[in-house]
Amino acid sequence: MTSIQGTQSRAGSRILSVGAARGDLVVPNDDLVGPIDSSDEWIRQRTGIITRVRASEGIEAVDLAETASREAIERAGLDASQIDAVIVSTISNTVQTPSMAALLTERIGATPAPAFDISAACAGYAYGVAQADALVRSGAADHVLVVGAEKLSEVVDPTDRSISFLLGDGAGAVVVGPSDEPGISRSVWGSDGSQWETIRMTNTLGSMRDGAAWPTLRQDGQSVFRWAVWAMAKVAKRALDEAGVQASDLAAFIPHQANMRIIDEFAKQLKLPDTVAIARDIATTGNTSAASIPLAMHRLLEERPELSGGLALQIGFGAGLVYGAQVVTLP
Amino acid sequence: MAYTQDEVLAGLAELVNDETGIATENVQLEKSFTDDLDIDSISMMTIVVNAEEKFDVKIPDDEVKNLKTVGDAVTYIVGAQA
């Protein structure tokens, strides 16, 4: 009997490169405080955000994704035809189907690579890296493009005091490829649907059909804060254990850029030594959901290129609730 | 052993001081966390989580919004002790 030919698996995968695209408009707090009866100081104190970036009308999330992807592919020293899977995480694509990934793949010249979107909100990039790592290690793919792309300004309500003023627009992309040594640790990822409504949309497509308003995002801030710091600190410690490294071995900590207060308290809980660079891209970019970790990684490497080759703990967490964390070797 | 009301107040005052720098003697039973002590929602949650650990009690998210004054929190923690 003829048997099926097996796939040659690999010892490891790693992030080969990172690309970034930020919204073209710099939006200071003063532009948003009127409808929420707030102030620049109030927003800075509670979120650490000084400005966030948003994209002009006519610039879509897929446009930002294309720019970030092209940079990542070029920096990896690859031709787009060598990309053999494209994973896009987004929650703000206004097209339900077909996927943003299929359009992106065609635009960057990677057709006919398999392409699909995932819905894992602010954990989406970490979910994508978990899948890319598995695809590359198993031999199912050689080079996987993982993209987080959001135009969250599409789903904000100017009168909302819970989350809208945090949000920005951007895209971050990484190429994951083969490595002789493991460059991505076993992912610690999961979900908790018992908190499905903690971060949510105000309306559904069905309710819109029946005349409801355009859906926008809301969150229960205190509940999110507790979960994002104390529950996620445990996830982060498990990710370090899976990787077999100590906090003192890290060159960088790159959490989802949700809120500076979360980042600060998170770092405190992890007892990170001063030698660990902490990504704080949120101050001028805002919260860009799935795009925030690769955007923060990109900035960190631009500002401190000597971190390249060091270990970084990256952790995403958000609506679902869902979370994902890995230790990665920085490209 | 269960903590007394005075012990909970003193412990809570230390947690408030750690988080906000407010002097412990200013953390009094009748003081409102938001109006008198100017503690924002994020600092409040940090204090709540630290109080859970210190006094070995559970303070659910839904309960936090009912803790308007220091006295509310002390009463809840004293009552929630196993």
Automatic annotation (TrEMBL), chain A:
User: Which InterPro entries does the entry mention?
Assistant: ACP_syn_III_C (IPR013747), ACP_syn_III_N (IPR013751), FabH (IPR004655), Thiolase-like (IPR016039)
Question: What ranges does the record give for the region ACP-binding, renumbered to this chain?
Answer: 257-261
Which keywords has UniProt assigned to this entry?
Acyltransferase, Cytoplasm, Fatty acid biosynthesis, Fatty acid metabolism, Lipid biosynthesis, Lipid metabolism, Multifunctional enzyme, Transferase
Report the residue ranges that make up the Beta-ketoacyl-[acyl-carrier-protein] synthase III N-terminal domain in this protein: 116-193
Q: Which reaction does it catalyse?
A: malonyl-[ACP] + acetyl-CoA + H(+) = 3-oxobutanoyl-[ACP] + CO2 + CoA
Pfam families annotated for this entry? Answer: ACP_syn_III, ACP_syn_III_C
- Look at the named UniProt entry and state the broad enzyme category this protein falls under: transferase
Q: Does the keyword Glycoprotein apply?
A: no
EC number of this enzyme: 2.3.1.180
Q: In which pathway does it act?
A: Lipid metabolism; fatty acid biosynthesis
Q: Where in the cell is it found?
A: Cytoplasm
Q: What is its main location?
A: cytoplasm
In this chain the Beta-ketoacyl-[acyl-carrier-protein] synthase III C-terminal domain maps to 240-329
HAMAP family listed in its UniProt record: FabH
- Identify its protein family: Belongs to the thiolase-like superfamily. FabH family.
Q: Please give the function described in this protein's UniProt entry.
A: Catalyzes the condensation reaction of fatty acid synthesis by the addition to an acyl acceptor of two carbons from malonyl-ACP. Catalyzes the first condensation reaction which initiates fatty acid synthesis and may therefore play a role in governing the total rate of fatty acid production. Possesses both acetoacetyl-ACP synthase and acetyl transacylase activities. Its substrate specificity determines the biosynthesis of branched-chain and/or straight-chain of fatty acids.
Q: What is this protein called?
A: Beta-ketoacyl-[acyl-carrier-protein] synthase III
Species for this entry: Agrococcus terreus
Q: What is the lineage of its organism?
A: Bacteria, Bacillati, Actinomycetota, Actinomycetes, Micrococcales
Automatic annotation (TrEMBL), chain B:
Q: Which InterPro entries match?
A: ACP (IPR003231), ACP-like_sf (IPR036736), PP-bd_ACP (IPR009081)
Q: Where is the Carrier domain?
A: 6-81
Indicate where this protein is primarily found.
cytoplasm
Entry comment on modification after translation: 4'-phosphopantetheine is transferred from CoA to a specific serine of apo-ACP by AcpS. This modification is essential for activity because fatty acids are bound in thioester linkage to the sulfhydryl of the prosthetic group.
Localization recorded for this chain is: Cytoplasm
One Pfam family from the record: PP-binding
What keywords would UniProt list here?
A: Cytoplasm, Fatty acid biosynthesis, Fatty acid metabolism, Lipid biosynthesis, Lipid metabolism, Phosphopantetheine, Phosphoprotein
**Keyword presence, Cytoplasm:** yes
Question: Where are the O-(pantetheine 4'-phosphoryl)serine modifications?
Answer: 41
Biological or metabolic pathway of the protein: Lipid metabolism; fatty acid biosynthesis
Please state which protein family the record places this protein in.
Answer: Belongs to the acyl carrier protein (ACP) family.
What job does the chain carry out?
Carrier of the growing fatty acid chain in fatty acid biosynthesis.
User: Would you tell me the protein name for this molecule?
Assistant: Acyl carrier protein
Which species is the source of this protein? Agrococcus terreus
